[in-house]
Write the structure tokens for this entry.
Amino acid sequence: MRRTPVLALAAAVALTGALTATAAPAPADPKGGGPGHGPGHGHGHDTVRFATFNASLNRNAEGQLVADLSTPGNQQARNVAETIQRVDPDVVLINEFDYAPEAVDLFRENYLEVGQNGARPIRFRHAYIAPSNTGVPSGFDLNNDGTVGGGDDAFGFGLFPGQYGMVVYSKFPILASRARTFQHFLWKDMPGAMLPDDPATPGPADWYSPAEQAVLRLSSKSHWDLPIKVGRKVVHFLVSHPTPPTFDGAEDRNGTRNHDEIRFWADYVGGKRRSSYIYDDQGRRGGLGRGERFVIAGDQNADPYDGDSVDDAILQLLDHPAIEETRPRSKGAPEASAAQGGANTTHAGDPAYDTADFSDTAPGNLRVDYVLPARRLRTVGAGVFWPRAADPLSRLTGTFPFPTSDHRMVWIDVR
Ligand SMILES: [Ca+2]
Ligand SMILES: [Ca+2]
Ligand SMILES: [Ca+2]
């Protein structure tokens, strides 16, 4: 059955418009308590904490997230809120938050602004959400299984429009009128796009037919450039959630797309020539100007050493001359890797940098969630919220089946 893509062309929804309000600086007091966990909240008046969290606030049916957030009693949502309260970011991207503008305020009112388990309430005056390609029918047989329809033939994998979307919350104003979205940018319009090949046919790069390539969007969810006003300065928060490089065949259609979704930001911050092909959903061209401040955030679904992503996919960002490699780490991740064994024992990457607790058959725990600032910003702290098992707060991260999410929150402090 075809769903009508009613959300596809809807304008981005800015939920707060208080552009003149000045956000209060983050409190400098320690909170949370308990030794050895998380950040200990040492950031003061001159630093801003940026974070990313794949919070698994996706649901299996349209409307379910709104239903779950309409009352304050959903335990998983409470755990997500407590995690955010413990880390206390100033600006946070939440991946896997079904697209539902109502849900944005419900999560604030019923969860974030309610102290969870002794943590202090957190108040984000600003938020941003916009439609996602997930679950929007493409009208084509994108997975080449002989039928058209279902989550795998959508513009991004999803069972209904907006499943696995994303939202940004901020204590600082989001300049929504200057936000750029790249939901509709076509994959074929990226020069040298890594369009997948059908190995069963002689032609190159022909998994997708010309008719499919004419409509196929690069972003599996969306890519947003959100200008955040911090004092007199603007920091562009560049957020996305590239598709997992798995759930495909020898053609590697998801691995190649993951690579190019990551490449999009590498080009966007790579100077005028490299970004000249880019156009946003309003038709404006180009990327960031040289010298503009930015922080790239999101679950990039790619580890620098292990897992199924195309070689070098995440190195496009980690080795980028304009981007700082911040190396957030935790004490809990190496402990989990050692305790869980399996695929983790074969990994080349240092488990201290892991951000996701994946199946220990394959791929094992990986570093996939990143907060990567422009080199010109000064990073003074970074971490992954993954407490040791002995820490009382490890109840928030837990073990499979997870009480909160299979991903961990990652943060950096920028001066
Ligand atoms: Ca199909
Ligand atoms: Ca072929
Ligand atoms: Ca695991």
Residues 1-41 have pLDDT under 50 and may be disordered.
